[in-house]
Design brief:
Chain lengths: 344, 347, 536
């Protein structure tokens, strides 16, 4: 497959890095290329990947949303509790939709707050991060729920693709991966082929011009936050599916992987740049890095160091590409208050 | 004289709020809330978060932010703890004192080094402060994890004297915090460095055009943040006699909340340290109050809910003060500025 | 009808631009089928606009016809931008009417005016730097049509069609941020055309273009005018106006001072209409500076890639040296280079005969240089801070005690001293500087740098945006500085002003010095001619 003529440079570099890393790890550990491992990698990418895609969408419009883990747990726990209270036998689709709606609502709140409060989105979403989680844990509950609705258990046993491994065992690709890939595909198509998708980039690139063009900047931004919330909630829900457990105190700690995946994948913190493919590749890179460290026998402690270094390098790359380090010229737009107007 | 009256009215509001809260809690739980033990405890608890808030505040004044404060604090305490555990002989006495002194210096240097690294990324390489400190936060946590192997280091009692000590009835950590706040406040309000810092935070390009040395400023600010975080880590070590990477997971959010509550504008150039100190106390009162009133163990979660709400409310009230001047701001009621060279304000 | 211009160059030999011959392009025109009516396309009648007591426009009337290229000329602060904004509908006039095709459009919204075919191409182009050139062209139109799906291939085809009408090809896939300025401009034009613009208002379109690129732009404009498009060409570049426009309207201080066909005018007439006789002929410089053997400032071989090359000049203590030229000549780049913002690539700078190295602003300040920037609001002042704070920024060494603490009383005294010396009108130094008028704000910026006791003071367009009555005051301050043996460099577009305050004037063009004249031995007319000379 030849790359399209205008395949972006950054994503190309990440792709190459992923491939090289895969080859490197695969050489040391033959198991790497087994179906089992690949399917496992993809499965591990799902939760982080869904968070990352949502995070990326907000980055595109020029905002920053760090509340995704909270939305994830609220969506997850809320759905399970609702199901157990009203409709334990609910089919999976209903549960999925409920989770999505909870996320959409929370994301909508984020969007409205950010566009109305005219405060930096980092700080607003730090506030909602705390608010949502605190609300969940104090007003809803802190107990683990092991008896999750059967639909979830069933779903967890479903595989979309079953391959036979070298040793004859059957290995399945979990269905959540299919959902993840489907969402990635949908986002890709929307971003590339709809005017709404292009508007997201327009708003992130030049909100003043976007407004002049008749784009409703606040609505577009709010939509991005809303979508991010939906995806975060779905991610949280799927993690409960996988663990067959609803733990309202879970999901903390993955923030950094998510942010790193988006940034490594080419999304700029100033907005308007990046692609969902890049985010996907970034997620792969992080997951492979984390997994391979384990496989190579490197203590888990070094994981954070590795991700931190990766992150700093990924940020540094476009800066290096610019030639001279003219920090003063570069920093405009990089500070705490993001460009894209006071409303994000 | 620094900025408009809106800051001073903010200070008055904070002071009133503090008095109101103390008054209310004092009436509701007079025996417990106003007891010397409790006051002592509150002052002690506010020290660590207070120092971290000072660190965040000072970086926010330049229009940036330091997300690595907690990581720096933890890695400092871990490095020092590791050093001490390997060098302290079983017996106490003078040897320990010298080693403690060295350990202290090492700790401060670790914080200083972390801060310089941040400064380097931001000033020289041009990283945005959010991303730079996000990266270094991870890095420092990672280094800390490697050093501790993921465990907690126990039994480090070298700084216990500081952690448990008090002077004039006030816990030493609180004194350190207040002293740091005082020094910072004086420097910001009465020294050239502080003056330039506020100017830079308010308008980067005008500061550059005025010949203010940007690099030195940024390095200094993040170094100060690093040192303050290191002190916070050392105090924590003194109080808990232990060190690990997970301590203070929510502290970064809290520190930012406190700074914003205290009147520090996230876009830079506005806000006073005294406001941050008041905000620290207010949050401490609220936190203790919540603990006392809601005896159940869930008070932590209620607090999380409360902090988030308070932050959003403060932002809502703060209004347009927080948008970035010039560029794509929604306007601060000033004369419109032009962007291009070659055109002044055209009427 | 359009005037034939015999000087138009053929663009076919140009690098980077492939011409699409009009015979092969589609015959479809982008002019709406409006029947030629006897009404002008646009007619403004007695437009007036006031802001907070300042009159931006006073009873301006003019017309634009189909396929006409109208120049709207005037200095900064003349009211051009306000007029444009009113035509675009972004602002409402206080008085007056606007007619489009004979109908009253005064109350219509900006979107409606775009529908009617009136489009403004702003100086910053309002493009999306992160999107491709093609997307910038077709996306707004598809958004306007309320399409849900972005028809990419149809969009690209549309973009290509429009570009062929314009006569240019651009790589449509490249992100706009990567394109050179002249291509960005063409993208902006193409975007307007896709939307069936009939009247394109171009706001200072040549500011960032090289001379050749300007010629390309003119070829495009002429071609489009040939297809019935009208243009309002907002500028104060005399030479360009003369080259491209059919008719000239000049604004000065909000009023129209000239409205005539280009063929009836000379450059001098236009220049005089723009600047007026508010500055009485004459020269303040009675005592020439003493010419000691060692100049205060000597610059040799000063070069910066792409901006200026081989700049050589000297400045004596107490001398006022003017830098004049068309926009884009490189004057601002040169003086900023002196100040380290950013520094030059090559060349030497000597102060009192001693070579100094200037790599950044600190070096420049230490060497005794001071720079008052053009954009005083965002580059010169800290608007939320007090007047006193703004004044003392560079004087801090004097205002700290031995141990380094700022002395409040000394600060207040210093501020008061400068407020008095420069006659800054304010009841208190504690008020925010944003409360001052433009003229007084400029005095604050001057005070700031004067408080630093510089040896060389560089002023970039110091009286722009300041009302006429306040300009003499600024000039006086400059004269006083010169009397104190400070070397002053003034960058300005206002030749009469420079004639008034300078000893010598240097003319720059395209990054190089082309002439140097003593004011006492020259005339305003001569210098203006040098500035506006056509290229050889």
């Amino acid at each position: 497959m030849s790359l399209p003529r205008n395949f972006p440079r950054h994503e190309g570099i990440v792709l190459v890095t992923v491939i090289l890393l895969a080859i490197a790890v695969g050489t040391i550990n033959r198991e790497f290329f087994s179906f089992f491992n690949i399917f496992s990698l993809l499965k591990n990418s799902t939760i982080i990947g869904l968070f990352a895609v949502g995070f990326f969408l907000v980055l595109v419009v020029g905002g920053l949303d760090v509340s995704f883990t909270s939305i994830g747990v609220v969506g997850m726990y809320g759905t399970v509790k609702l199901a157990l209270a009203f409709y334990p036998g609910a089919p999976f689709v209903i549960l999925f939709v409920v989770a999505a709606l909870i996320g959409a609502a929370l994301g909508l709140i984020n969007g409205l707050l950010v566009t109305r409060l005219q405060a930096p989105s980092l700080i607003v979403t730090l506030g909602t991060l705390s608010l949502y989680r605190g609300f969940l844990l104090y007003f809803i509950g802190t107990k683990w729920i092991r008896e999750v609705p059967t639909a979830m258990v069933e779903f967890n046993r479903t595989n979309v693709l079953v391959m036979t491994a070298a040793n004859g065992a059957k290995v399945g690709l979990h269905i959540s991966v299919a959902i993840f890939l489907a969402i990635v595909a949908i986002v890709f198509l929307v971003l590339r082929y709809t005017t709404l998708g292009r508007s997201l980039y327009a708003v992130g690139g030049n909100p003043v011009a976007a407004r002049r063009m008749g784009i409703n900047v606040e609505a577009v931004q709010t939509l991005a936050y809303c979508t991010a919330g939906t995806l975060a909630s779905i991610a949280g829900f799927l993690s409960a599916v996988r663990l067959r457990l609803a733990d309202p105190q879970s999901l903390t700690g993955s923030e950094l992987d998510v942010i790193a995946a988006a940034v490594i994948g080419g999304a700029a913190i100033t907005g308007g740049k990046g692609s969902v493919i890049g985010v996907f590749l970034g997620v792969l890179l992080i997951v492979i890095t984390n997994d391979s460290l384990i496989v190579l026998g490197i203590p888990a402690a070094w994981q954070k160091v590795a991700i931190g270094v990766l992150l700093l390098v990924a940020i540094g790359m476009p800066l290096l590409a610019r030639g001279r380090f003219t920090a003063s010229q570069v920093r405009t737009g990089g500070g705490l208050v993001r460009v894209g107007g006071g409303s994000t | 004289m620094r900025v408009l009256q809106s800051i001073d009215s903010r200070l008055v509001t904070l002071l009133l709020a503090a008095i109101l809260i103390v008054g209310t809690l004092g009436m509701v739980r007079p025996d417990t809330f106003l007891s010397p033990l409790n006051i002592n405890s509150m002052l002690l608890q506010s020290s660590v978060i207070g120092l971290l808030s000072l660190a965040v505040a000072v970086t926010m004044l330049t229009g940036g932010i330091d997300l690595s404060i907690n990581a720096t604090a933890n890695v400092t305490s871990i490095v020092v703890a590791t050093l001490l555990s390997k060098t302290v002989p079983a017996e106490g006495g003078n040897a320990t004192l010298a080693i403690t002194a060295v350990a202290l210096v090492v700790g401060l240097l670790v914080g200083f080094g972390c801060g310089l690294f941040n400064g380097f990324l931001i000033a020289i390489l041009g990283y945005s402060p959010i991303l730079a400190t996000l990266g270094t936060m991870t890095l420092f946590v990672g280094i800390g994890t490697v050093l501790t192997g993921g465990n907690t280091l126990f039994g480090i009692s070298a700084f216990a004297a500081v952690g448990r000590g008090s002077a004039l009835g006030i816990p030493l950590p609180a004194i350190i915090f207040l002293l740091a706040a005082l020094v910072l406040s004086l420097v910001l309000e009465a020294r050239r460095f502080g003056f330039y810092l506020y100017l830079y935070g308010a308008n980067e390009s005008a500061a550059r055009f005025s010949g203010i040395n940007e690099h030195r400023l940024i390095f200094s600010v993040y170094a100060v943040s690093g040192v303050l975080s290191a002190v916070a880590g050392l105090i924590n070590l003194g109080v808990t006699n232990s060190a690990n990477v997970d301590y203070g997971a929510s502290y970064v959010l809290l520190a930012i909340l406190i700074s914003v509550l205290g009147g520090i504008s996230p876009s830079g150039g506005a806000g006073r340290i005294i406001g941050v100190v008041l905000a620290v106390l207010i949050l401490q009162f609220l936190s203790t109050g919540l603990n006392l009133v809601f005896q159940s163990g869930g008070s932590n979660f209620l607090k999380e809910f409360a902090w988030g709400t308070i932050l959003l409310v403060v932002l809502a009230i703060g209004g347009r003060r927080y948008s970035r001047p010039g560029r794509a701001s929604k306007g601060r009621g000033q004369t419109p500025r032009t962007v291009k060279a070659g055109s002044a304000v055209a009427l | 009808m359009k005037k034939e211009n015999p000087a138009s160059p053929t663009a076919s030999q140009d690098r980077g631009m492939r011409q699409v011959s009009s015979t092969t392009s589609s015959a479809r025109l982008f002019v709406e089928g409006t029947p030629a009516s006897d009404q002008p396309l646009l007619r403004a009648v007695d437009l007036s606009k006031h802001y907070d007591g300042v009159t931006a426009l006073a009873g301006v009337s003019f017309e634009v016809g189909t396929a006409e290229i109208l120049a709207l000329a005037g200095e900064n602060g003349s009211g051009k931008s306000t007029l444009i904004r009113i035509i675009a509908g972004v602002e409402r006039a206080n008085e007056g009417t606007l007619f489009i095709d004979g109908a009253d459009w005064t109350g219509r919204s900006p979107i409606e005016r775009i529908e009617a075919g009136i489009q403004v191409i702003y100086q910053d182009f309002a493009l999306f730097p992160n999107l491709s050139a093609g997307e910038n062209i077709w996306l707004p139109e598809q958004l306007h049509q309320r399409r849900r799906l972005a028809a990419r291939s149809a969009g690209v085809a549309m973009a290509q069609r429009v570009l062929s009408e314009v006569g240019v090809m651009i790589e449509l896939d490249r992100p706009v941020a990567e394109l050179p300025v002249w291509q960005k401009q063409l993208v902006a034009i193409a975007r307007a055309l896709v939307h069936d613009a009939r009247l394109l208002i171009m706001d200072e379109p040549t500011t960032a273009l090289t001379h050749r690129e300007v010629q390309h732009l003119f070829a495009v404009i002429r071609r489009l005018a040939g297809r019935g498009k009208s243009f309002i060409f907002v500028s104060h570049q005399l030479q360009e106006i003369a080259q491209i426009c059919d008719r000239v309207v000049v604004l000065r201080n909000g009023s129209k001072t000239l409205d005539a066909p280009m063929k009836d005018l000379t450059n001098i007439q236009i220049a005089q209409a723009m600047t007026g006789r508010e500055i009485a002929p004459g020269n303040y410089r009675r005592t020439p500076p003493n010419s000691s053997s060692v100049p205060l400032l000597a610059v040799r071989g000063f070069s910066r890639d792409g901006e200026y090359h081989d700049i050589n000049f000297t400045l004596a203590a107490g001398e006022v040296l003017g830098f004049v030229g068309l926009m884009g000549a490189g004057r601002t780049a040169v003086v900023k280079g002196l100040f380290g913002l950013p520094p030059a690539d090559l060349g030497t700078i000597e102060i009192d005969g001693r070579p100094i190295v200037i790599r950044n602003v600190s070096d420049a300040v230490r060497a005794g240089l001071a720079y008052v920037p053009e954009d005083r609001l965002s580059e010169g002042l800290f608007l939320d801070f007090s007047i006193g704070d703004n004044i003392v920024v560079r004087a801090m060494e004097r205002l700290v005690t031995k141990t380094g603490w700022i002395s409040g009383p000394r600060k207040v005294k210093e501020a008061a001293c400068w407020i008095d010396r420069l006659s800054i009108k304010t009841p208190s130094s504690r008020l925010p500087v944003s409360s001052l008028s433009g003229g007084n704000q400029q005095r604050v910026v001057l005070a700031k740098w004067m408080a630093a006791n510089p040896r060389v003071l560089i002023l970039n367009r110091p009286t722009v945006g300041i009302d006429v009555g306040s300009k003499p005051g600024i000039h006086q301050i400059i004269m006083e500085l010169a009397a104190k043996k400070v070397g002053v460099i003034v960058v300005s577009d206002d030749v009469p002003e420079l004639m008034l305050i300078c000893d010598r004037v240097i003319v720059m063009r395209a990054g190089a010095i082309v002439a140097e004249r003593n004011v006492s031995e020259s005339s305003e007319k001569e210098i203006t001619q040098v500035v506006t000379e056509s290229d050889p």
